Amino acid sequence: MTKTPPATPRFLQPGLPSRAVHWRTAFFFMLAALCTLAIFALHTFSNNRIAIAVLYVIVILISVNFSSRRGVFAIALGCAALTVLSFLISDGPHYAADSVWRSGVALLAILITTFLVLRMQSAAERLQNQAHLLDLSHDAIFVRDMADRIAYWNRGAEELYGWRSAETIGRFSLETVGTEFPMAREDVFAELMRTGRWEGELIQTRKDGTRVIVASRWSLQKDANGAPAAILETDTDMTAAKQAQDHLAQAQAELAHVARVATLGELTTTIAHEVNQPLTGIVTNSEACLRWLDRDELAIDEIRETLKRIVRDGRRAGDVVERLRGLSRKGEPQRLPLQINDLVADTLALLRREMKAQDVTLKVGLARHLPAVKADRVQLQQVLINLLINAMQAMHATPRQGRDLEVRTAVQEDGTEVLVAIIDSGCGIANVEAQLFNPFFTTKSDGIGMGLSICRSIIEAHGGRIWPSRNVNAGSTFQFALPAYESQYQ
Ligand code: ADP
Exposed, middle or buried: residue 326 (CB in 10 Å: 0-12, 13-18, 19+)? Predict the structure, then answer.
């Protein structure tokens, strides 16, 4: 498909439809021709004693409207030649001094005007070329004045928004592209005025009503006096990239869910124990109550205490089921402020039995006065479970009395981040450090190798970071940091 040449930017030369341009050119050409004839006739055949040939400057000025620089130069030469010709016809062969002087002034005026016009044309051409370059950009670029009226609209903007340049000039830009700001509009403009630039993500609407997400960069142009004159906006279409990102996030969420359910599968035995224990307590205590009810004299206080234990055990079993339901839930992530210490305690409660079964000695060091973090509880718990299970598995080959696991929480000195560290005395990561977070990297016969890569995507999606390190003595430490939600301590 052949492309039409780029349109001349409006703010340099007001564009008109091609038929109108044709008529406009013809009009100025005719006007210049008529003026030339009239001036030539007056100069040659009238006895007027004024420098009529000076009027040729009008012809030169008119010629700018239909002629290139070379053309203007040729017309100026023509005007000079006609001046001399008139002079020869009307004054020859006497050549009166005042006539020579008048023709000389006219020639000088033609020379100066031509020089100025050519300079002006050259500057305009330079600007036009620069504007053509803007048309080559794939980004949408437009200029608007301080009243938000569009003054320039490049080809990229035509392609992105579907509005032709001619349709947008003079229209309000924010209205034309239906800009939705991620923050208060006043704040955006305040930053632009203060720093001269603004960058951010905007949602805009095309002519056909569909919406686009753009990475937008604004810069303020000032006039010679330093007063704001115009805003240059460059928009890069991010819609496809955003959609791909969303699909990726969805795929990751599904994968994370599958991994959670798989982890629950691994923990089935210990979880069954966890629920079984309070259930056994409930049965035993209920039987005791029934026996006491058969006695002649009712031991009300004993029965009340036992019933209280039954209620407590029932709640405990209920809590375990609730925690599991939360983990196996498949839903949209919900980021809410939460206390990481509570989450660590809950997660350890879920794994405590497994640790005991593997003779792991657990040490917990939870920092006091931690700021909250804004996170999805289920996702964060998945990270903790993954790291804790990995730590336990890394200690399989460690002698039973040396299986030490430590969980610590802390706050960064400047209060901006909450840190969680899981320290084990297992086999360490010396040989595998570089591959740890690669998807499908595993050293376990039954491993999938997705745990750490899921942990990293969850932590990074929360604006945090996760990293491993080798312990001085034995084993390794996995740490993650999340941005503190509140700056003041709770
Ligand atoms: P998987 O547990 O299925 O192998 P992960 O992504 O959770 O998948 O872990 C990848 C690999 O990283 C593990 O197979 C193991 O070799 C190594 N690894 C993870 N955590 C530790 C740890 N605490 N100590 C030593 N190696 C570890």
Answer: middle
**Residue 12 backbone dihedrals phi, psi, to 5 degrees:** -95, -40
Tell me what pLDDT residue 257 has.
76
Ligand 1 midpoint to CA 363 (Å): 21
469 C-alpha vs ligand 1 centroid, how far in Å?
A: 13
CATH topology for 335-490 is Heat Shock Protein 90 (3.30.565)
**Rounded to whole angstroms, what are the CA distances from 327 to 31, 231, 288, 382, 488?**
84, 50, 35, 8, 30
Judge contact between 67 and 76, C-beta under 8 A. Answer: no
Percent of the chain at pLDDT above 90? 59
> 267: buried, middle or exposed (CB in 10 Å: 19+, 13-18, 0-12)?
buried
Residue whose Cα lies nearest atom 11 of ligand 1: it is 442
More confident of the two residues 361 and 16: 361
Place of tokens 């803007």: 134
Ligand 1 atom showing the smallest separation from residue 426 Cα: 24
- Coil, strand or helix at 327: helix
What CATH number does the domain located at 140-237 have?
Answer: 3.30.450.20
Share of the chain above pLDDT 70, in %: 93
146: Cβ–Cβ under 8 A, 6 or more apart, which residues? Answer: 228, 229, 230, 231
Distance CA 204, CA 225 (A): 33
Amino acid at 104: G
Answer whether 140-237 and 335-490 agree in fold. no
> Which residues' Cβ are closer than 6 Å to ligand 1?
386, 390-391, 394, 424, 426-429, 432, 436, 441-444, 447-453, 476, 478
| Confidence band of 437 (pLDDT split at 50, 70, 90) | very high
Which amino acid would we find at residue 463? G
Best of 390, 406, 471 for a ligand 1 pocket test (most atoms within 8 Å of beta carbon) = 390
* Residue 24 CA, ligand 1 centroid: distance in Å: 76
**C-alpha 422 – ligand 1 centre gap (Å):** 13
Given a cut of 50, whether residue 13 has pLDDT beyond it is no
Nearest to 333 by CA among 386, 260, 387: 260
Atom of ligand 1 nearest to the CA of 427: 25
Annotated domain spans of the chain: 10-136, 140-237, 239-332, 335-490
CA 330 to CA 336: how far, in whole Å?
Answer: 17
Three-class HEC string of 59-71: HHHHHCCCCCHHH
Residue 249: partners with Cβ closer than 8 Å, 6 or more residues away: 461
What is residue 206's three-state secondary structure?
coil
Distance 337 CA to ligand 1 centre (A): 29
Which atom, in ligand 1's list, is nearest to the CA of 454?
6
